[in-house]
Target: Aminotransferase
Amino acid sequence: MQLSSRLQLFNEPETLKMAKLGRELRAKGIDVIDLSLGEPDFDTPEHIKEAAKKAIDENWSHYTPVAGYPELREAVCTKLKRDNNLSYKPENIIASTGAKHSLANAVFATVSKGDEVVIPTPYWVTYSEIVKLGEGVVKLVPTKIENKYKLTPAELEAAMSDKTKLFIFSSPCNPSGSVYSKAELEGLASVFRKFPNCYILSDEIYEYINFVGKHESIAQFEDLKDRVIVLNGLSKGFAMTGYRLGYLAAHPDVIKACEKLQGQFTSGTNSITQRAAITALTTDLKPSMDMTKEFERRKKRVIEIMNSIPGLTFPEPDGAFYVFPTVTAFFGKSDGEETIKDADDLCMYLLNKAHVSTVTGRAFGEPAAIRISFANSMEKIEEAWKRITAALAKLK
Ligand code: PMP
Model:
């Protein structure tokens, strides 16, 4: 029996593949430290858990409106005004089953077969694969490590054409940790003004995990706002990956299109999660800010260790919870048993010899680097980096 040819259009996420390999080794009794996955190692804040429990007791157990409860869409507007000074109405908002689902909705709502989608590299793995599944044409645009992997207006302008329907980026960025300033976004905005038929998908899911100050959204430029699709969710900032809640803020036409898609694919997202999300989005951000402080403490320690390892070149991350070092200095080297050809080999070497899982930069469109998370306890991080340091030292 033949399965669908659609399955050939895209790949499974490399991040999940590495986690799976790590689990397989762990099942054999090997102590693997996971620095591959993209999720906070914290528990969901108590007051949000209480809201979820209350929702169960109050029997919020029926189908919800497809785009989300009106109170949730209102809560998203409240959040966007409070944190980002962005004015939206509930008709501008749709809640979905995780930001990944929101992303899929946004891509399918805007991109037709053959439309070009510009994505600066390195980028989050799912962007390109969802575009390919939607039969769009992915146009990857390299950025420079000297610019902290941030796209310059000139690089953007060279990549854009009249065929470009959508531009996708994240700030703070997974995997590079780069954060765009208002001035840098203004630079990109000046290019987008020349391409009025292009939507701009701004993935802001790491908004709260920012070590350099104020989060800036490209939706703040009023003349672009109708074309900007803000993507955000609860997974990272509130440690709620398993709850599955993502949302979009966009022009009502885009939201209606997403609602049409979602009405057939999934209906409204989980009712308990939606009630908990209302609390998360409108109440105390202190637990989120405390988490960010802890991420920053770990980042500083990881950077300190990395600076002592010859051969790693990297920009210091300004947000998210990853370091993304260039590892080309190890290519062509061997520990006497295995020769490292590329970043994939290095990740497998670190998994098999140091028992630390990381992710190859190839998955993010940057084959010279690997992504190493610091969303793990300080104790595990110390141990993992001790092992990584020893394993890298053996490569001659
Ligand atoms: N965007 C980025 C940049 C991410 O790293 C992730 C999670 N890895 C998501 C979106 C999706 O998050 P979720 O589906 O858990 O809400």
Remarks:
- The radius of gyration is 21 Å.
- The chain has two domains: 5-43+287-393, 46-284.
